[in-house]
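User: Please predict structures.

Assistant: First:
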Amino acid sequence: MRFIGIDPSTKTGFVALDPDGNVLRAKEITGIGDKDPKRMRTMIVDIVQHIQKGDAISIEGFGYASQQAVQNGGIGWGIRMALEGRSYQYTEVAPNALKKFVNVTGWTGEPGNKKRLSSKEKKTAVMRAVADHFGFTHKSDNVVDAYVLAQISRCIALNLSDLEPYQQEVIGTILSPPKPKNKRKAR
């Protein structure tokens, strides 16, 4: 069994781990050329060619504040449709859950004097946290995110329990998501 992490973006991160957490494949996938839809289509084909029957797959959920939301949405949905078309099951992991799994909150500073991290600062904080937690480094933040997603797949599939409390909380939320609050009031 392999554990797969996919971070969909214009440069998609892909990581495959073995049961012991060793990296089998870590790659940034960009597709062919620079003209869409060919680039996006070839990227999705490349990703799916790396998947094998029996893989446990986690894919990062959609980020709502992305500057490239439409393009990333197309790539994200394209990957999901390609996986579904081949009957591959996958687990959706919210972007904040990915960060929380390595204890990154998106804030810096002491209580009462906190500052929100910029997008670039968050990426750097996640890359540093992944190196500290797992000893994994890569030049691409997309591949680093995919690595965290692969680790989440591994923890879920192997039912690992030797996790930090914040990691246990992330896994618990993925396996038993909170029920949405009904904001609509009855008349």
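Second:
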Amino acid sequence: KNVLRVKSAFKSFKQETNLSVITEDGSYYSFNVKFAKEPLLLNIEMTDFLHDGEAVNRPNNAQEIYLERLGSESPMLVKLIMKSIYKQNKREIKHIGSKRFGVQFLLKSIYANNGLLYFHTELKNTSNIPFDVDYVSFKIVDKKVIKRTAMQEQVLEPLRAQNYVTVVHGKQSERTVFALEKFTIPDDKQLVIEIAEKEGGRHQSFVVENEDIVRANVIDELSIQ
């Protein structure tokens, strides 16, 4: 999902053409394209902003754009906010989490900025058996559910994730920052965040109340780096 492969459909086309690429962080790149039997450059890292000259055909800067799903927030700023939350690693919330079977799943903090909410979670594996992550879900459910149905669950899909891991090895821990669209929870409902183990039974989940959401820290308190 992070690789774009470009190949000529036929040999030796004479006319130069162009290629435009929009990356997930909202950067826009434009390239001039011409046929070459032996290209001077085979691989381009989109994170490289400096080029070695015109022959390398690499942009010396990226034009920033906005993505509809992120609303009025800059994708680059969202990325910087998530990296700062991850780097500072503050545990602002100390009462939300679950612990079973040698695995602990914690909510460390919630931040809010410009229509987005950021959830900082941590998964600790104190056992010797690796925890393979199947999925992480965010769902708003009824507090009193006799028979849970699809109508009684509202699934919230994260827009971005910083350091989304697929496995937490034994005696190790991993942290992830999720970005979601801003929301609040009705009095008769609650947010359930769940992490499931692939082909295992050590699933973890915890409940987040509306009062936890409305007390989210503001991004102004962070030093964005």
